[in-house]
Amino acid sequence: RNIRAVIDAPVLIDGRLIGFFCVRVCERTRDWTAEDKLFAVAVANLAAIVVQRIEREKAKADIIAGAELLSRMHHTLNELMRVELKSASDLGTTMRAISRALGTGMCVDTAGIWVADQDGQSITYAEVFKLADQKHLRGLVTPPVYHQFIEMTKLTGRAVLVIDDCATHPATRPYYETYFKEMDTRSVMCAPIFIGGRIGGF
Q: Strand 135-138 vs strand 123-130: parallel, antiparallel, or unpaired?
């Protein structure tokens, strides 16, 4: 590269260093003038203003998106309350209404509900709502995955089991190729359904 002369002007936002504005001269020296230095600082300050504006716009967009998400969740909760009040319908109808409301409210690819028997050994109900197709699909969970989620919930003591990457998380990695990848699933959030103090589903 044979760089012989350099000006590096820091880009600062509220005293925080976020980068540098750099100019270089190759294969010859240069005596930078005061005007050169002032110009570099001015450009670095302009870069800081642009970055600050972009950060503000992103923060504003995040606030708007957060408000929209809260609004959808509020609507979802209202829908779920309405379903509960009309719950004279059978288990399948009620669960399908809940999974549809969850999928739509959280804007996720799929929302499923799994329910086990009293011993927690057999899955008595498993259905997933696919947002893109607006359809419910039956039986899309395997017992090993279900039991792994139960064990993880017991070990962590968490109200909600969150897995950002199913391919690398220790709880889901063994099942990624045979289950999650086939389901095009990369991230999961599971909230246990407690019935009489036991985990009766997710």
A: antiparallel
Of the CA atoms within 13 Å of residue 80, those in its CB half-sphere come to 15
Q: How far apart are CA 18 and CA 76, in angstroms?
A: 40
Q: What is the pLDDT of residue 162?
A: 78
The answer on pLDDT for 85 being more than 60 is no
Joined together, the tokens standing for residue 18 give 């976020």
DSSP string, 87-126: TTS-HHHHHHHHHHHHHHHHT-SEEEEEEE-TTSSSEEEE
pTM listed for this prediction = 0.54
Structure tokens that stand for 137 in this block = 């699909």
The per-residue pLDDT for 142 is 64
Strand partners, 130: 110, 135
* Letter string b/e over residues 29-38, b meaning 16 or more CB atoms within 10 A of that residue's CB: eeeeeeeeee
Q: Compute the distance between CA of residue 202 and CA of residue 99 in angstroms, rounded to an integer.
A: 11
Choose among 106, 108, 94: nearest CA to 201.
Answer: 94
